[in-house]
Amino acid sequence: MSTSPDLRPHPRRPVQPDLKIVVVGSVAAGTSAAAKARRNTETAQITVYERDHDISYSGCGLPYFVGGEVADIDDLTPRDPAWFKARYDVDVHTGHEVVAVDADGRTVTVRDLATGRMFVDSYDELVLATGVRAVAPPIPGVGATGVFSLRTPSDAGAIRAWIEDSESRGRTVRSAVVVGAGYIGLEMTEQLVARGLSVTVVEALDHAMPRMDADMSARVDAELRKHGVDLRLATKVVGITSDDDGVAGVEIDGVGSGVGADTAHIDAELVIISVGVRPNVDLAEQAGVRLGPTGAVAVDRRQRTSVDHVWAVGDVAESFHVITGEPVWVPLGSTANKMGRIAGDAMTGGPLEHRGILGTSIVRVFDLGVAQTGFTEGQARAAGYDVEVLHNIKPDRPEYLGGKPLVIKAVADRATGRLLGAQAIGASGADKRIDVLATAITYGADVADLFHLDLAYSPTYATTKDPVHYTGMALTNAIHGQAPLVAPAELDRRRADGEPIQVVDVRSAKDRAKSAVPDSVHIPLAELRQRSGELDPALPTVTYCNKGVTGNAGQNVLRNLGFADVANLSGGNQNYQQNYRLNRNPRTTLESPVPVSVPETSSASSSSTKPSALFVCVHNAGRSQMAAGFLRALSAGAVEVRSAGSMPAEQINPVAVEAMLEVGIDIRDEKPKILTNDAVEASDAVITMGCGDACPYYPGKNYQDWELDDPAGQGIEAIRPIRDEIERRVRGLLAELGVQPVA
């Protein structure tokens, strides 16, 4: 690993006794600068001007106030000017906007927004902490009442009031459109769903979480749909409609607007615009400060700008990347706090310097933690690196103590072995692993170093070989040629380009019956040595299992038998199916993943013009029947309904029947049925229900995956919440099909 930075104390320079510091902006960076300056000196006069009325607030917590998870806005705004005066002897003036800077005369012009009075204040050191402004896209109707962005506590209060007061206004807010699927957009989506709203997310790119690689964010796409969110990808909002009561809906254009439609309309009583932010550099430009290539203020490592005695901190300022040293702009509260502290220290004689960022971040999306650090695969390739890519799927802790799958995608430089970046998604444990990996990248770790990390182990928290250890081992083997990897997208691309690759499935027949990589040869690992003669040792070969471990074992067998070019499918069939299932543009040269082999029948075909839906689970003994029962009842016959299973049971779950009878729906005639290709072809929407790889994907359909707990063997108390969740999702499906549910 690289040598640690010099952490020895440096001598502090003397501070001017009557130093006068003016800070413009009072959220994370501005208040951090003021507080650190005061800690270093008691003699300086420190003044903060803030155009808004709230200071030092938790901007990242605002969505949770909108959703009600944070009950009181005061919990996000715990400090006021009086607190700062008492604690730090800092004068904070809210409702005061700095409108001009005279850098030569070292003065600022300030407007008191309450009275309109203008006055001039002088400074020795000026800190610009003006933050960001929300991007306002040029959409017709964007100024309508009921259209919001979220940046300040005032914004959050206005959104919450719009929802909670809507009934008294005569138009209850029941549905919302969120424009943009980045961090704030997804946090708002989660919280609006928690409030019981029907939510549509419109994203111009072809996947949510634009800062992540598409093969990882596909899991976020699935999580959104699992919770009933109508996700419209590769789609833009081209207009917002309104009337005297406020916003009424949005007009959309693109893939998500519907087949054959130039534009489509989505009803909504609330619209959240979350398409990004830009650094608020107006004051900096007026002061003659140089901007960097990112559009934010260029600063040195002590947060000094190009103008003497002017500093810039927080979201208005550029940072630089830990790996490349190049300027980057990633507005995060954690970075803003560091920048403020560094500037406050430096201007009062301290030695602190900024050491760069990796853009490390994490967001909760319903039941998933979604985290990243460093370069994505796309960014690493764009930066010129020859990269090795790993998809590592391991439980965050032993499954016998409730461990859940954790997916880590890691990117390394083949030339040096240096770890360049990582993304992690899972129900738990993503935070711990991404922090370890961020630390490793910061200190220049080689991937081989990851295996040697002495990480905490207890089965309640981790596996004996942690997912971080596995990441290091697999990448090391791949980089050094001991166990090469191939990502699903790369495999598809190479085969689509005509490269003759033999793909070997080393799983059991039972696993293969659920789904498989197209055009793969099935030779279970136990038979591979004896049957290796069925393969051509001269051809490039890819082995795979469910997640990667057994595939690596098969890879080693073939390499030891003289096969020269053998790669293991990164993340196994699970990663392949996830990538292929949620790829909006599957290559037409590839077949669908192999479904359960079932006989073709004509009994499922239908010439009905009604919209149709097919529910698929493994045993067709509970979940799919409950969903079919709800859809029949709520649509009153307006939807053609089918249910089927890949390995159907002999009879329906009697406790599921009991649970449905409680809500007045009799599903005793929903006999278990075998899944057929005809049933799929006859259905407009195909909904799989918590069966993972046992539920194959069918391109060209309105496909959804509802990951629901299995009611098999459960008592009535456990089945009721499953039943209620199915009803909620069925109601969302009816809205997508354009059918009004009965009461």
UniProtKB/TrEMBL annotation:
Protein name, entry field: Rhodanese domain-containing protein
Domain Rhodanese: 497-585
Annotated GO MF terms: oxidoreductase activity
Pfam families in the record: LMWPc, Pyr_redox_2, Pyr_redox_dim, Rhodanese
Similarity-based family: Belongs to the class-III pyridine nucleotide-disulfide oxidoreductase family.
Keyword Isomerase tagged: no
Cofactor dependency: FAD
UniProt region (Disordered), positions on chain: 585-608
Superkingdom, natural source: Bacteria
The entry's keywords: FAD, Flavoprotein, Oxidoreductase, Redox-active center
InterPro entries, per database record: FAD-bd_OxRdtase, FAD/NAD-bd_sf, FAD/NAD-binding_dom, FAD/NAD-linked_Rdtase_dimer_sf, Ptyr_pPase, Ptyr_pPase_sf, Pyr_nucl-diS_OxRdtase_dimer, Rhodanese-like_dom
Gene3D superfamilies: 3.40.50.2300, FAD/NAD(P)-binding domain, Rhodanese-like domain
